[in-house]
Amino acid sequence: MLSHSFLATIFLSLSLFRISISKPEFVTTPPLPILPLPSYSQLKWQQREIIMFLHFGVNTFTDSERGTGKENPAIFNPTGLNAAQWVDTAVEAGVSLVILTAKHHDGFCLWPSKYTDHSVIGSPWENGHGDVIQKLVEAAKPRGVDVGLYLSPWDRHDRRYGHDKEYNEFYLAQLQELLNNYGSVREIWFDGAKGMDAPNMSYYFSDWFSMVNELQSSINIFSDAGPNIRWVGNEKGFAGKTCWSTINRSSLSIGNASIEDYLSTGDPKGTDWLPAECDVSIQTGWFWHKSESPKKLSKLLEIYYKSVGRNCLLLLNVPPNTTGLISSHDVQRLREFTTAIDTIFGTNLAEKWYVKASSQRGGKGGGFGPENVLDSDHLWTYWAPRDDQDEDDYWIEFKGTDYGARFNVVRIQEAIGLGQRIKRHEIYVDGDRVASGTTVGYKKLHRLKMGVVHGNSVRIRITESRGVPLVSSVGLHFDPFWHPKGR
């Protein structure tokens, strides 16, 4: 028979064993964020990278860029309009959001507004019963493409323009029509464009923005001053070499030309998360013109590197023609552009390389190792160094095979969900510095000035940062379309 002491010992051992196996093993916590932070909608917007603008209206039929407001609605007659073709073009380009000019400065409305007859109601198109916005929504939804709308504040047609109270009531009424009747709108586009000869007019932007947020809570509002997306300050599609998503909204005002440089660079001390959108047209003009051709592929790639590759989103205008279709030469150029981007960035030459770093948060197995920069998550997995390491020597290094790799583009991305941090960085290939820069943000693309390099090791040094840097993704890529001058 077993003694009481022996049984007690066994019971105690089993109890301790149960405690030991049930005790949780805690993982290392993420670092604290650095404010301000993006909203959910802003993060989703940033990940789109390229979206499409559709400038379409009476200007399309008058071969002009800025209508007078005196155009007869009967001139709007796109006999072959096919919104599905617009959406197909977007899908083929990997675009998930299309913004349509619901009303441009001429005041002509692409939907049958109850508040004016200067619209498709007076057009022979579909005997005055057409609705371009509805056509787009119906084509976009089954393809998984989101819709955005531009409602020009400047209206050269409506008699109420120049009378603050009357016009703002009219504008808000049309805004309610658009946001109540066409389902989910993902971006609403406002600008401060106004001719020198325009009547003096005050826009009640605060009222408009409040109404927008009341009607569509997940929408992003674009304007010079946000509140969700800011203009980059030019219509070339370029951001500044330094580009912060943070800025002080209190320093911004809509239609103020003196702040264009500030819009382009942002502010490392900014209290508001307000990322920049770069708008540019695939042709010279914003509306379709028979005499114009699309930009060369090399120009579109330059725009991509200086917009998406500088922490911005690219809004590329691809205007429908008088038939109501996106012209075949624009479709073809857009197809070439998309193929080129896929060719360049479809392969990460560092994917199989060994990676190490100056330090890592939580040590080995802590979940913040440098290997995270080579996975498929470019936002929520990341390399994080220790809090207590030397702030002047953060680095992450990649070692290749005996043969190394040939590349001419280096991609770096930050974990912006925890704030934008990197102020300065340098890139070394086999010990030689090949590039340097300031901000990174969602994505920084370095197209190497010396052209193709052949290397076995790549080190990225973060020389200045707001707190510890958090690098979410790194890529080495070969761009066959990049031919630096003199090389």
Automatic annotation (TrEMBL):
Residue stretches making up the Glycoside hydrolase family 29 N-terminal domain: 74-337
Signal sequence, renumbered to the chain: 1-22
GO biological process, one term: fucose metabolic process
InterPro entries with a match to the protein in the record: GH, Glyco_hydro_29, Glyco_hydro_29_N
Short name of one Pfam family: Alpha_L_fucos
Subcellular location: Secreted, Extracellular space, Apoplast
UniProt keyword Signal, yes or no: yes
Keywords of this entry: Apoplast, Glycoprotein, Glycosidase, Hydrolase, Secreted, Signal
Record Gene3D superfamilies: Galactose-binding domain-like (2.60.120.260), Glycosidases (3.20.20.80)
EC number: 3.2.1.51
Main localization, broad class: secreted
GO molecular function, one term: alpha-L-fucosidase activity
CC annotations in GO: apoplast; lysosome
PANTHER family linked to this entry: ALPHA-L-FUCOSIDASE, ALPHA-L-FUCOSIDASE-RELATED
Protein family (similarity comment): Belongs to the glycosyl hydrolase 29 family.
Name assigned to this protein: alpha-L-fucosidase
